From TrEMBL:
Organism: Micromonospora humida
Name under which the protein is recorded: Nitronate monooxygenase
InterPro entries: Aldolase_TIM (IPR013785), NMO (IPR004136)
GO molecular function, one term: monooxygenase activity
Keyword set, alphabetical order: Flavoprotein, FMN, Monooxygenase, Oxidoreductase
Amino acid sequence: MGGIAGPALAAAVSDSGALGTVALYKSNPEQSAALVVDTAARTRHTFAVNVIPEVAGRLLTDQVGALLANADRPLLLNSYGLLPEPEAARVLAAGHRLLIQVGTAADASVAAGLGAHGVVLQGVEAGGHHLGTLGIRELLAQYGQEPAAFVAGAITTGTDLLGALRAGASGALCGTAFVVTAESAAHPSYKAALLQAGPEDTVVTDRFSIGWPGRAHRVLRSPVTDAPQPLPATLIAWTSVMGERRPVPRGSAAAPTEEAEGHVEQMARYAGLGCAALRTVQPAAAYVAGFRAEFTAALAALRGDGTAAAVLVPTGRSR
């Protein structure tokens, strides 16, 4: 959600009682520092900073440094994919939390060895780039160790979360649902398309690989995904990144932010299978409140006694 999960959205989610995340994506050192400082100024609560080691490349060390140098409180580093050991050690030594997203049980074990406080098992139900080829339930069945396992993929309602907890998860990361919140920096037409979409309107493809090769990704269907052969990588749009205007070729991994101009419908509109539950744009706080109410009601119905004290999962652990 680089460019979409900015300081405004991260702060709004954290203020609502969940954990907001600001995405650094390909930000340079100055941009990364500005994103951390801006988010910290908007909320008094803990928030997460997301990095993508395989995309950031040599920028990664500076991005982690921006977190360490500008954090005014203990934060959480949310790494998409395994983090190099030296960077993990820097984060932990500075007293911050570490969450690592993976797509296989084997990588979850490596993440545990890096000292991660939690791992995120990302299933193919998720929107965006995929770290593996299995669904959430299969990953949970293969994962039976510490640290705590969260899941990502089609968790859009409180009822979805309850199902994940009962399957053995400790919590969830939600992405697609927050694209359509008021504080999201997604392009209005991207939000509108998500609000009209169902699971059948998404597809896993490799058509948006410019700038991020080698990863399949789930997006909304479009002329780009449905063409029998890849379409020419000609210029289709312009966008702005931290005030810098940039061209967008067809097939770019860049998501359409509110600054995008041109054929936005041909850009990478990432979307998970849970999009059918999204039908209105609302503030992040309202979405989180509704999510929490759905979870409480679903848990009370499951227990059958009107209370929501605990969830018993197959492992026997209480959540």
